[in-house]
Amino acid sequence: MNSPQKPVLVELPDSHRGAIVLGDPGYHRDPAEVFSALRRTYGPVAPVLLVGQVPAWLVLGHRELTQVTTDTRLFARKAARWRLREQLPADWPLWPMLGGGHTESSLLYTEGDEHRQRAGAVSRALASVDPVEFRAQCESRAEDLVDSFAHSGRAELMAHYALLLPVMVMGWALGVPTEEHRDLVAAFTDQLAGGDRALAGHQHIRRTVQALVRRVRERPSADVASRLAADPVGLSDEQLCQDLIVTILAGHQTTTYWMGNSTYRMLVDRRHTDAFIRGRLAVSQALREVLWDDTPTQVFAGRWTSRPARLGHVTIPAGDLILLGLAAGNTDPHLRAEPGGLRGSRAYLSYSHGPHSCPDPARDLAETIVTAGIEVLLDRLPDLHLACPPEQVRWQPSVWMRGLEALPVTFTPTPPTTRYAGGTPWI
Ligand code: HEM
């Protein structure tokens, strides 16, 4: 029997009776434990429920994830293929991550040639960012942010650092005017919080990007938005707007949480602290280990079966929702049989895999942001300490992402750099 507190939006198939709900408090506390338990019970593919008791299949095996993300015909990307689509209300809270509303026409939910062309255009535009100039921007914005709290001896690093740095530097790369970054950060925060202001936050992001589209159509420049507008693929204004929103959003939360998870590890795990202070090469190695062991992208939605599909030990009917258990795939015991196994490699699934995975130039930008952000933090505040016991740190209540709500730290107060003119407009 389903409890009255848990509204049932669709009829449950037999395959999903007794399945757990992804996103309950136990999941937020320790998703890795939930994935292990599911693996023990069901193997590499588990039936799960989303809020509203909506059934889906969570893929936990590295091999099965590779299969799903590679076979894009069988495990397709258009949300319109979902057979439960019409039964779910328009205000179902997970729609924004599953192709609801405006997002349906975005690059994320296209297939075949259209996807190849639009993803190619985004990759080309992102690849046009000069890596040296981008790294310099990351360092200089990171210095400004550290300057804004260095004198006080304490800071909350999620709100005042990890949340801000990616939007500032990606805003710069995309061509969003500096004076608009502040409101954009507030809009991201509102949208991510998923509360009363989430819709207003989303609308603000859309208005900002629509203004950017108008500007680059009239006065193109050398930024990513102008390059995407000028790409021979010939995007319409709405497609350009959608693909820029995807680029901004896909890169924001992921990069923020990667920086937060890495900094947290550095503060609580001796091996990571050593790795971070040993030298610059070690920073990228330590960051890679975070992608293996504590990736920001836990579960990614989604794929839909275009016809009945055999996956692992189950046969999945056509039109079912598949969730990519990327974090579980990274810790698949079959893959990690040897201790430390593949840790030095980049075979993790944190960026997903196959034609829809995070574009290579985006990965390079993300790595530059996180590396520069952590290096500047360590250079400027070498005696950083967590300001609360590790078990008191709270994680975001998200099904999809693993990121900290707050990261309070203390350190020896230091004066601002000489280049700091005072007054970062953010805080
Ligand atoms: C500057 C930073 C970043 C940018 C601009 C960016 C951009 C993008 C874009 C445009 C896509 C859509 C690709 C497509 O549908 O063809 C995407 C997908 C994705 N990105 Fe990123 N990204 C960034 C950082 C990250 C980070 C740090 C992670 C995780 C560690 C990540 C994980 C993913 C995943 C899991 C997908 C979905 C793949 C799928 O559907 O299979 N991204 N990203």
From TrEMBL:
It comes from the Bacteria. GO terms for molecular function: heme binding; iron ion binding; monooxygenase activity; oxidoreductase activity, acting on paired donors, with incorporation or reduction of molecular oxygen. Coiled coil: none annotated. Belongs to the cytochrome P450 family. This is Cytochrome P450. It comes from Streptomyces caniferus.
